Every structure is written in structure tokens, then in C-alpha cells.
Amino acid sequence: MDTLRITKDNLSQYANTDLKFEGHIELDAQLGLVAFKSLSATGSIYTGVNTSIQAGWGIQAGTSIKAGTSIKAGESIQA
Questions:
Q1: In a structure prediction context, what are the per-residue pLDDT tens digits for the chain, which is 79 residues long?
Q2: I want to staple 23 with a disulfide (CB 3.0 to 4.6 A). Which of 2, 6, 55, 57 is the partner?
Q3: Prediction pTM value
Q4: Furthest-apart CA pair in the chain: how many Å?
């Protein structure tokens, strides 16, 4: 399964979007709060230490969700 890695260098490409990915999503440590409109992966979603994820609509993963700091969704969180 493919992995999308979100780093400090490519963060602006993905933040505040409806991100849907077929595979795993990994966010590097030390990114602070990263907001999405919605976040969805067929695999797992993982964030490093001092990185939090927030989505206005929902966060969904096919297998698991693990955050280094916190997870917040306006509608739902499902793994």
C-alpha cells in the first residue's frame, strides 16, 4: 500500500483541502495543528509528536488513526 507523507515542505499543498488517499497518510512531527476540510485514507492515518489533525467534516481511515497530539473533527472520526 502506498504512503503519502506530509512534511513541512509540502504541507501547504494538502492543508485545508478535502484529502482522500488510497493508502496510508503520515504527517511528520512538529507540524502543529494541521487543518483539513476532510481527511480520508484507505489505510491508516498517523501523525508524529506535536502534530494534531483537525477536519471540519470528518476523518476516516480504513485501518487506524494515531495522533502524536490530538484529533478533532466537526462531524465524525471513523477507523
A1: 999 999 999 999 999 999 999 999 999 999 999 999 999 999 999 999 999 999 998 999 999 998 888 888 887 888 7
A2: 2
A3: 0.92
A4: 29
